[in-house]
Amino acid sequence: MAQKPKRRVRHHVNPLSFRRPVELPDWSTAFANPELPLEVDVGCMHGTFMLERARRVPEHNFVGLEIRVPLVEEVRQRIERDALPNARVVLCNANTSFTDLFAPQSVHRVYVHFPDPWFKAKHHKRRLVKPEFLDAVASRLTPDGELQFATDYKDYAEEVLDLVEAHPRYTNRFGPRAPAQPDPERVLTNREAWHLSLGDPVYRYHWGLAPG
Ligand SMILES: C[S@@+](CC[C@H](N)C(=O)[O-])C[C@H]1O[C@@H](n2cnc3c(N)ncnc32)[C@H](O)[C@@H]1O
User: Fold this and answer.
1) Range of the domain at 97
2) Starting at the edge strand that comes first in sequence, how are the strands of the sheet with 38-42 ordered?
3) What is the CATH number of the domain that holds 134?
């Protein structure tokens, strides 16, 4: 029997060269109940984290943002197969599409889990977390909303800490520059499970919006 050709999933897509127009979903019809609090998983990859949370927390809606086409297709199929009424995935560059995708003050929580570190200094400009991205997220979070960030890469953790802690809209939930307290109930992402199995350190921070 002829074998189905395997889809090639590139390891990285350079966000600075991503040119596809984003298809903006109609959020009023995208979910069974559009009124539920919205959680956004930026760089959802296979959707493992987001879909497990969608199963565990049916009283919230979930959107995965992903820049790699075959992964978006895979997540879409998983959502369909599991008939999840509270999960969606969008093909986009989150750096350029975040404010177009969501209305002001409409997102309850944003996850940035293990973003590509782009190790070489000349590639740091491709990193996801930049001042403009933080502005975009702050403008879309609800007043009680939260940005959660995790990485295994100390250099990136420190860069993000410097950026977010200097940003006037954010306040660290656990005190200035403090890591998030471990939550044994939390859903692990693919990357997090892998790093924990290797005994790698994980740098995790949660920021709310500053009052006022
Ligand atoms: C290292 S993986 C981490 C995946 C997952 N969050 C986890 O923790 O297992 C980073 C993911 O972010 C996606 N990504 C990178 N830059 C992006 C961007 N600008 N917009 C949307 N997705 C992006 C990549 O394609 C990749 O799937």
Assistant:
1) 26-209
2) 87-91, 61-66, 38-42, 107-113, 141-151, 203-209, 170-172
3) 3.40.50.150
**Within a domain: 120:** yes
Per the structure, the count of domains in the chain is 1
Which atom of ligand 1 lies closest to the CA of 192?
Answer: 8
DSSP-assigned states of every residue in 180-201:
PPP-TTPPPPHHHHHHHHHT--
Please pick, among 100, 116, 135, 183, the residue that the annotation labels catalytic: 116
Q: Within a domain: residue 21?
A: no
Cβ contacts of residue 12 below 8 Å, gap of 6+?
116
Contact of 61 with 31, CB cutoff 8 Å: yes
Cα separations (Å) of 124 from 15, 134, 153, 156?
A: 11, 16, 13, 9
Any catalytic annotation for residue 144? no
Q: How far is the CA of 44 from the centre of ligand 1 (A)?
A: 6
* Structural domain contains residue 33: yes
Report whether pLDDT(119) > 90: no
**pLDDT above 70 coverage of the chain, percent:** 96
Per-residue pLDDT tens for 73-114? 999 999 999 999 999 999 999 999 999 999 999 999 999 999
Residue 17 in domain: no
Please give all residues whose beta carbon lies within 6 A of any atom in ligand 1, as ranges: 13, 15, 43, 45, 65-68, 71, 93-95, 113-116, 128, 189-192
